[in-house]
Every structure is written in C-alpha cells, then in structure tokens.
Amino acid sequence: MRRAEESVKARGNDLARVWHDRAVGTLDGSSDAELVERILRGEGELFDLLFDRYRVRLHRYLLRYVGDPEDARDVTQEVFLKLWGALDSFDPRYRFSTWAFRIAGNAGIDHIRRRKVRPAPISLPVDEDGETRQPDLPDGRPDPLATLESHRLTREIDAAILRLPDDYRELLSLRHYGEMPYEEIAELKGMPLGTVKNKLFRARQALRDLLPKGIV
Fold first, then answer.
1. Distance in angstroms (rounded) separating the CA atoms of residues 11 and 188
2. What's the pLDDT score for residue 6?
3. Contacts of 27 (CB under 8 A, 6+ apart)
4. Same domain, 34 and 86
5. How far, in whole angstroms, is CA 189 from its chain's centroid?
6. What is the pTM of this model?
7. 88 in the same domain as 152
8. Residue 46 lies in a domain
9. Which residue from 4, 29, 181, 210 has the fewest beta carbons nearer than 10 Å?
C-alpha cells in the first residue's frame, strides 16, 4: 500500500505535465468499485487506474471552482491523497465518481476558506515587458483573429464564472467541466433532478448576464 501512496505523490508532483492530456479511460475492464475492492485486497498499484480515470475531470472542476491553476493542481493532488487514505470508507452501493467529487468539492471549499479571498480570474501569462502574452497558435490555423476572439471569450467566461454565487459556480463546474450527468449531480447534492436542472438553467442565465453584451 505504501508503494501506491508514493506513486500518487510522485504522479501528483508531475501533474503540470499531464493536465491537458486526455483521460486514458479504462486501462482495465474492472468497474471503479471492483478496482477499489482489489486495491483494498492488496493491489495498490491499481490506484493508478482510478487516477487516470478521474484526474482530468477533477482538475477541470476544481480549476473553475478555486479559480487559480496552481491552486487547482495542489488541491487535486490533495484530493487524490484523501481518496487513497479513505478508500476503506467507500460504499460500493454508490458511484465512486459521486464520492470522489464530494471529496473534491469539500476540498475546494476548504481551500477557498483558507485563502479568505475571492478567486482571481484565470489570466494568460505575462511576458517580461508586462504585456499579456497570447499562446502560440498551431500551424494551419486559417483565421488568427477568430482565434484571438475565442481566447477573449474564454477569459471573459472564466472571469464571469468566478463572480457567480458559490452554488451556481459549483453546479456549472460539475456539469460542464467535471462532465457529470444531471443524475449524478442530483445524487451528489441531495437535490431532486428537476431542481438541479432548474438551478443550472438559472446559473447559465446569470452567467450570460455577467458577460459583456455582444460577446455571446
């Protein structure tokens, strides 16, 4: 088990290199619950499979929730360490994903409380002259101006999300960045399915109201 914990920490330290990779999906045919059972029986190395299945979704969710890329990486690593340490408390009658996102949500809330400030908008890197640096465009892009507009839209949406009330920001993050189905969000939050859909509709309306006119 110690080897698996060390593996989690080592992989966590290397998260910056892999965040933008696609999740590798199921390298093993086992369900999440079956993997947990096998890990608890002594196959600790299988925790890597759970890491690969959830690292991208959890990080995207936390990035929009806490608002800072470095903080999101730190909190995501913290979440996986918590998942590892609490595996024996997982109830296989429920979805592992719901349990994982509940732990992630609590970790995000704790982080924001510790920080005691509202999250800052996600910004592009700044060069040595203090100017905002646009990312390099891959070859073959036919319309650089359209690409710049796309980056501007992303920045505006990121900033607007961070101005939403906490419950709206969390629901939007779960749905659109955590890629969680409505049914799982309802299970996670203990809400009726209709309430989740209604609150998400209101959250999207609130987000549109915060965006500059004409941007969408």
1. 27
2. 59
3. 49, 52
4. yes
5. 16
6. 0.62
7. no
8. yes
9. 29
Range of the domain at 198: 144-161+163-210
Reported as a single tens digit per residue, the pLDDT across 131-163 is 544 444 444 444 544 544 556 667 778 788 888
- CA distances to 91, 111, 114 from 117, in Å: 35, 10, 8
Domain's final residue, options 78, 94, 115: 115
Same domain, 149 and 111: no
Can you give the CATH number for the domain in which 155 is found? 1.10.10.10
C-alpha 3/C-alpha 6 separation (Å) is 5
> Which residues of the chain have a pLDDT value below 70?
1-28, 116-153, 214-216
Residue with tokens 């939007």: 172
Q: Report the alpha-carbon distance of residue 155 to residue 123 in Å, rounded.
A: 7
Q: What is the pLDDT of residue 56?
A: 92
Number of domains in the chain: 2
Q: Crossing angle of helices 96-115/32-40, nearest 10°?
A: 80
Residues 176 and 109 reside in one and the same domain: no
User: So what's the pLDDT on residue 97?
Assistant: 92
